[in-house]
């Protein structure tokens, strides 16, 4: 896992002059920045020797000039560019004139006293751009992307070691099932578990089930599975619990439809012998989402899935035309999902 290797290098004081962090996983980006700061400057030095810039506010050439300036009463300084959209196809409304050519000579010969961190918190880079190629060639690149299930389990182990708690592999997997793969959320849940078990303690399956709240996505998974299996009482109870948590019924309906469509797509691709890896690329979904869907669709009939999506459209229409109150309408739709599970098709 690329970023964990870089974290370990930084903690050994092996700090590179320029880092290029790109991707949407905010926790990875923040942890990289925090580790660089902690292992480069003392708290007192950080006040005078950490500069943060946004391209939307400051010309790139001025940021490079700052990077080329010696630190103030310190052996090191850190310069951070927060939103490097120049490496993407994203348009920006700013009228600031960026001299992109000022970056190349600096990347080839960075100031030894400066650590430059360039952040592109976007899903995709524009690989055709010269600046993107320069960054990928002349910097230490860390892709802050969603982790696979295996990588997430490994990451939980690293975080558990830092927190001084013991988490067995089955408990790690349960944690991911409940909290999802968002690292910020997982770190928060692990911290909660540490407070419960104490430093040096073991986090049990019972503790995770008791302490960790399901994500909305996981609740949707469970709700559909219970409904399609005819376990209506459990499905309705799940829905009412989501409403008690202040989840908007229309949002729940939208997510139900999204999940049903994912199931339908995965079902069709599975029948055509596509692998889960191929499905991830085609559907642009997280590998963990595809893995769960592939496991669940085994017991789902394709015609029932299509009928369920049509029933959801009818429910949405009834709500938006004022024919049915939204909470009642979504609950009725969940009951209909259960009815579909018992219907036979020729």
UniProtKB/TrEMBL annotation:
A GO term, aspect molecular function: DNA-directed DNA polymerase activity
Keywords of the record: DNA replication, DNA-directed DNA polymerase, Nucleotidyltransferase, Transferase
Catalytic activity: DNA(n) + a 2'-deoxyribonucleoside 5'-triphosphate = DNA(n+1) + diphosphate
Pfam families for the chain: DNA_pol3_delta, DNA_pol3_delta_C
Alphabetical list of InterPro entries matching this protein: DNA_pol3_clamp-load_cplx_C, DNA_pol3_delta-like_C, DNA_pol3_delta_N, DNA_polIII_delta, P-loop_NTPase
EC number(s) given by UniProt: 2.7.7.7
Source taxon at top rank: Bacteria
Record bears the keyword Transferase: yes
Annotated DNA polymerase III delta subunit-like C-terminal domain residues: 217-337
SUPFAM superfamilies linked: P-loop containing nucleoside triphosphate hydrolases, post-AAA+ oligomerization domain-like
UniProt-recorded name of the protein: DNA polymerase III subunit delta
Gene: holA
């Amino acid at each position: 896992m690329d970023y964990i290797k870089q974290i370990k290098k930084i903690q050994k004081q092996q700090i590179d002059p320029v880092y290029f962090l790109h991707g949407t996983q905010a926790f990875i980006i923040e942890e990289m920045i925090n580790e660089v700061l902690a292992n480069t400057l003392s708290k007192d030095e950080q006040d005078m020797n950490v500069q943060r810039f946004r391209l939307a506010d400051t010309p790139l050439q001025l940021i490079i000039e700052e990077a080329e300036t010696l630190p103030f009463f310190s052996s090191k300084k850190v310069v951070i560019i927060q939103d490097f959209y120049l490496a993407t196809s994203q348009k920006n409304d700013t009228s600031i004139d960026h001299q992109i050519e000022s970056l190349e000579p600096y990347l080839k010969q960075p100031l030894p006293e400066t650590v430059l961190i360039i952040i592109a918190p976007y899903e995709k880079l524009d690989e055709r751009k010269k600046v993107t190629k320069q960054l990928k060639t002349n910097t230490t690149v860390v892709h802050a992307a969603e982790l696979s299930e295996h990588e997430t389990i490994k990451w939980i182990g690293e975080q558990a070691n830092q927190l001084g708690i013991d988490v067995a592999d089955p408990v790690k997997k349960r944690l991911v099932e409940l909290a999802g793969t968002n690292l910020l959320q997982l770190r928060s849940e692990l911290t909660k578990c540490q407070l419960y078990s104490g430093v040096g303690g073991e986090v049990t399956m019972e503790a995770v089930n008791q302490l960790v709240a399901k994500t909305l996505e996981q609740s949707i998974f469970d709700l559909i599975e219970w409904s399609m299996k005819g376990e209506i009482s459990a499905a309705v109870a799940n829905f009412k619990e989501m409403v008690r948590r202040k989840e908007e019924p229309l949002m729940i309906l939208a997510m139900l439809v999204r999940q049903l469509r994912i199931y339908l797509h995965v079902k069709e691709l599975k029948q055509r012998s596509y692998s889960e890896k191929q499905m991830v690329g085609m559907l642009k979904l997280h590998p963990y989402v595809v893995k769960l869907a592939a496991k669940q669709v085994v017991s789902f009939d394709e015609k029932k899935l299509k009928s369920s999506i049509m029933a959801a459209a009818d429910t949405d229409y009834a709500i938006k035309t004022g024919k049915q109150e939204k909470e009642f309408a979504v609950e009725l739709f969940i009951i209909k999902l259960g009815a579909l599970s018992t219907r036979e098709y020729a």
